[in-house]
Design goal:
- The protein has 731 residues and is an alpha+beta fold.
- The chain has 4 domains: 195 residues, no CATH class; 212 residues, Collagenase (Catalytic Domain), CATH 3.40.390.10; 146 residues, Immunoglobulin-like (Sandwich), CATH 2.60.40.3880; 128 residues, Serine Threonine Protein Phosphatase 5, Tetratricopeptide repeat, CATH 1.25.40.
- 25% of the residues lie in helices and 26% in strands.
- It contains 17 helices and 38 strands.
- The strands form 10 sheets. An 11-stranded antiparallel β-sheet has the order 1-8-9-11-12-13-4-5-6-7-10, covered by helices on one side.
- A hairpin with a 2-residue loop joins strand 8 and strand 9.
- Helix 11 crosses helix 12.
Length: 731
């Protein structure tokens, strides 16, 4: 027994009763009419009854009948009982969250235990009671329930007592008595003093680039029609309403940037590097700190409103929003700024989109019609964007409030568990289950090579097509980074992995009309590497399936395709596999290159592939990533929060891109869609150099090459349009 006591909170041993600290400096100002009483018979409230109107001597406050004369000596107003309570004595520290009263009460109790050893404190585990019973007798509130815990214990029931205090008195301490789950025998007792109204505290650091001259401050929700009361909301205030204290912290800085055109746009690689090097509160461990960068434009364009960084070692610690898409001073623009900032930070709390809750661990039902910060207004199935804004109360839904207030610590804290870590095999299979009835007029098709070498980048071609002669408007953002298409991969051992991008991108969807003249749209996605590392990291047979989430709520599920990863058969293939299956290389392939110092080893690997294996098909992927990065500027934010710009190396970039293109045109290396992008990137590089002759020749070459390929006529027409538009855009 002594060994057990060293490793688990003393829930079953002698009571732990720390000294109650003086709380006379804590004054509550809330008025709680639900606890007014003259007589004090025992009152047992179920969770559903806690919000019912109070009765005084048999008279309900909401009674419209004539009020009989009642003599009251004095109606004593009691403090509301909710917030965080803390026990700081003994071998375990307890942070207790009581959520039975106050704004949007969820009728839950939760807490986190920390082990205290000498001068060190270590997180031990969390618990939550999702259903509680509340009893009020003689001005004492008693809360009972059964908890879920992150550790194994037989003492999984509790009795929590808190004495009511008058409005001008300090709030009383909470006494938590643990009980045996079967016998009801008493375990440990913790006395927790009232600490604060917020259930959690997260420090927010914000920076902006110089291009963003008027970053978001606040929005009056009464400026436009909505589904909630009018009030002025800042980012901090929106989270305060959710029960999260969010003080500003760190040093707010203006990051100077005076670049124009494409050079002034941010790439994933640059933002990733900025997150690693620039967040002054960043620590390489779970902390309640988060960073928000107010930037002007992402390389994807004004449709990308925000992005949340999520990658190994840096889970959910920072986000960026882009004012090319959300900027302005009108009421609608300020509303969009508030929404985007709160939405992106919601991802940092490990909240998924409303229609993607089934990706969580454990999975939850999707709520596509949720009026929540985490839904897309333009995806709202009950009337679209206008209907969403008219009904939106500027709040999280209750399932999300439960998570950010009462979720287990490591599932919520920044730097804790990864974002939406996926589901088990059975749950993921259900996620991709084909509908038993499908009246939609769309089909989703997948295509890839049948076999790949171990370490070879796996690209997936995604095709959405119409099955009707009528016009069919669809979202054309098919890349899984944007969340409208979800991809599941069944690995050789039977485990199902959901592809999850390195950064959660929130985009204003682009639309196109599918019809006889334009029956399908395409996208290629590199799916070999995601936030948990490499997916195709062992030889064997893989199955891939995807689902497209249409705006009307329909789920268009693809057929399952298979591919095989071959085992290396010689020393060359074995060495190439070792070079490519490094996480740093995975980031570089995903970002299309990077100057980030922490990816130097990956760049060394790609350089070795180009030099030693120049004639091998896999060299095309190294040439493409290095070539794209070389021909663009690369912005780095220094610790002094200046922007250092590395200018393009057009000669090196053009050489590498040409090598990748020529190799791929022989059927080795890049697939057709990525080859198309490589040729357009090369043409833009020539244009930026001022060599319009080579730029036009590259586009003519692209059109001629694809006209010779066995592809659909409408696709050839689209490629010709892309060639013409590429050089029309001067950025």
């Amino acid at each position: 027994m002594e060994k057990v006591k060293k490793h688990i909170p003393d829930l079953q041993g002698d009571p732990v009763i720390p000294v109650v600290e003086d709380t006379t400096n804590i004054i509550a100002t809330e008025t709680d009419f639900s606890f007014i009483s003259v007589q004090e018979p025992e009152v047992v409230l179920t969770p559903e009854q806690l919000n019912e109107p109070t009765e005084i001597a048999g008279l309900r406050h909401d009674d419209d009948t004539t009020t009989p004369e009642i003599t009251l000596a004095a109606a004593i107003v009691k403090n509301k009982v909710y917030g965080t309570y803390a026990s700081n004595s003994g071998s375990f520290r307890l942070e207790l969250r009581v959520d039975i009263d106050g704004p949007t009460p969820l009728k839950k109790v939760s807490g986190d235990f920390y082990s205290v050893s000498g001068a060190t404190v270590t997180y031990f585990g969390s618990f939550v009671a999702h259903s509680v019973t509340v009893t009020i007798l003689n001005s004492v509130i008693t809360i009972t329930g059964t908890v879920q815990t992150t550790w194994v214990t037989q003492y999984n029931k509790f009795k929590l007592t808190i004495k009511q205090t008058d409005l001008l008195q300090p709030l009383a301490a909470a006494q938590l008595q643990w009980l045996h789950g079967t016998t009801g025998g008493p375990g440990a007792l913790y006395v927790c003093n009232f600490a604060k109204r917020g259930f959690r505290t997260v420090r927010l650091e914000q920076d902006r680039t110089a291009q963003v001259t008027a970053p978001f401050v606040s929005y009056n929700t009464g400026s436009l029609p909505s589904g909630g009361p009018a009030r002025v909301l800042s980012i901090n205030a929106a989270y305060t309403e959710a029960g999260i204290d969010m003080p500003n912290a760190g040093v707010a800085n203006v990051v100077p940037i005076a670049l124009a055109g494409a050079d002034g746009k941010w790439t994933d690689a640059e933002l990733h590097n900025a997150m690693v090097n620039h967040f002054s509160l960043y620590q390489n461990k779970p902390v309640w700190d988060v960073w928000l960068l107010h930037a002007y434009e992402h390389i994807i364009g004004p449709g990308l409103l925000g992005i949340m960084f999520d990658q190994q070692g840096l889970q959910r610690q920072g986000a960026a929003v882009f004012y090319k898409g959300i900027g302005g001073t009108t009421a609608a623009q300020r509303r969009l700024q508030l929404y985007t900032c709160v939405h992106e930070l919601g991802h940092c709390f490990n909240l998924l989109h409303s229609w993607q809750k089934s990706f969580a661990t454990p999975p939850k039902p999707n709520i596509p019609n949720s009026l929540s910060w985490m839904n897309y207004p333009w995806n709202y199935p009950l009337g679209g964007q206008a209907s969403f804004w008219n009904s939106f109360g500027f709040r999280f839904d209750n399932s999300e409030l439960t998570h950010i207030r009462h979720g287990f610590r490591n599932d919520v804290i920044m730097g804790g568990n990864p974002f939406g870590t996926g589901a088990s095999l059975e749950e993921a299979n259900n996620m991709f289950e084909a509908p038993v009835e499908n009246n939609a007029t769309l089909e989703l098709e997948l295509q890839s090579h049948a076999t790949y070498l171990l370490g070879e980048p796996v690209d997936l071609e995604i095709k959405l097509k119409t099955t009707t002669f009528k016009n069919n408007e669809v979202i054309c953002n098919l890349h899984p980074d944007f969340g409208f298409v979800t991809i599941g991969i069944k690995k050789p051992g039977g485990n199902v992995v959901v592809f999850e991008p390195l950064a959660e991108k929130c985009i204003m969807p682009e639309h196109t009309v599918l019809n006889v003249a334009n029956p399908s749209i395409y996208e290629t996605a590199y799916i070999g590497f995601h936030k948990d590392g490499f997916i195709f990291d062992q030889p064997g047979r893989y199955e891939i399936r995807a689902v497209y989430n249409a705006e009307d709520g329909s789920r268009i599920v693809s057929d399952t395709i298979t591919l095989r990863i071959k085992s290396p058969v010689n020393v060359k293939e074995d060495e190439l596999a070792d070079l490519f299956l490094e996480d740093e290389v995975g980031y570089l392939l995903k970002f299309k290159g990077s100057d980030a110092p922490y990816l130097r080893r990956g760049n060394d690997n790609l350089d070795l592939v180009i030099d030693k294996f120049k004639g091998h098909p896999m060299a095309a992927f190294a040439q493409y990533a290095k070539g794209v990065n070389a021909q663009r500027t690369y912005k780095t934010i220094t610790p002094q929060k200046d922007v250092v710009v590395r200018t393009p190396d057009f000669a090196e970039g053009n050489k590498l891109l040409n090598q990748a293109i020529e190799k791929s045109k022989t059927g080795q290396g890049l697939d057709n869609i990525r080859l198309n992008k490589a040729m357009r990137t090369l043409a833009k590089a020539y244009q930026r150099q001022g060599d319009m002759e080579e730029a036009q020749a590259t586009m003519n070459n692209m059109v001629a090459y694809f006209n010779q390929q066995p592809i659909k006529p409408h696709v050839k027409e689209l490629i010709a349009e892309q060639a013409a538009k590429t050089l029309q855009d001067k950025s």
